[in-house]
Amino acid sequence: MTQPRKFIFAGGGTGGHLFPGVAVALELQRREPNARMLFVGSERVLEQSILARHEFEHRSLPVVSLRELTRHPWRFAIRNWTAWRAARRLIRDEKPDVVVGLGGYASAPVVWQAARAKCPVVLLEQNVIPGRTTRWLSRSASLVCTSFPETSQRLPNGVKVEVTGNPVRREIAKFNASLQMTSTAPRELLVLGGSQGADSLNEAVVGSLRLLGEERSGWRVVHQTGSRQVDAMRHEYAASSIDAVVEPFFDDMPERYRAASFVISRAGATTLAELACCGLPMVLLPYPHAADDHQTANARVYEARGAAVCVEHLASKDETAARLAEPLRSLLTDAARRHAMSIAARSCSRPDATDIVVDRVLELARSLTR
Description:
Layout: E1 6-10, H1 15-31, E2 36-41, H2 45-53, E3 57-60, H3 68-71, H4 73-94, E4 98-101, H5 108-116, E5 121-125, H6 132-137, E6 143-146, E7 161-163, H7 170-173, E8 188-192, H8 199-211, E9 220-224, H9 230-239, E10 244-247, H10 253-259, E11 262-265, H11 269-277, E12 282-284, H12 294-304, E13 308-310, H13 317-333, H14 335-348, H15 353-369
Parallel strand pairs: 1-2, 1-4, 2-3, 4-5, 5-6, 6-7, 8-9, 8-11, 9-10, 11-12, 12-13
């Protein structure tokens, strides 16, 4: 009797890395109900809570990022050495059919040990500019699945690359909504400050809305702030008499997308992929300290295709708020522009990305069996 297949998903740390893996795991589970899904990543609470929500098995490694090397060199060395040894034992004991690397430092120990053990490896690279971990491990991978065609130019020669799009959850990939151009259309502005918070974005949004008067009349703001600033943002909205729902984190993102007319967000690739599938116009404030400024690169691709407006952070939050107010004024008052951007966003989407990635993972698993 054939043994059920086993798939290990390596990485996490942030929702942007984790959610594509969850989407792939759910589809694998749908196709092969007896298969075992094991996520191996960091010790972050966010990662554990997301996976617990989907009832996926999770193991954490004491891996820490390269940023810790200069600040805590001994801690960096000891914890990562422990993590790499644990990853070697894990691959030896579990003998997975395929390892799917989700990107980021948390994926490195398991992906590296899997490659050394000749286990098939699929890497998911969400961003235009591939991360350091992807660039380093790509030569050892069976396949690198990218979201953007431009990414392959930044990977080593000889790496096998396929532009699959960024996997998103089935309920979002199948999202079917259209912006109405009548006065009865939903008038809701969704602000995504990130699951871990985005203080400068939060402050810029409130500051820009204060600068607008009648343009925001009849609109409601739904703002995900992260936990640090939720109380402060509630106070700021109330003091400015702005109709707003403010929460640290939303578990019901498909419903939030369905109600929104347009979105203000960071430019993480997974969020952008979801917004594109939902056909939502975007005002993007890329995180200015992202590695290799990859969020700005992501945002510029969507802006070039007419789906987004990219607003970069300026020297002060007041200057950023003033810059942000310009596209906000236009999108709050111009339904035709929102409609055109919605169509452009849909043209950027790859709702079949999850299916394509799962096809490739299963092809590798079957070839190993043969």
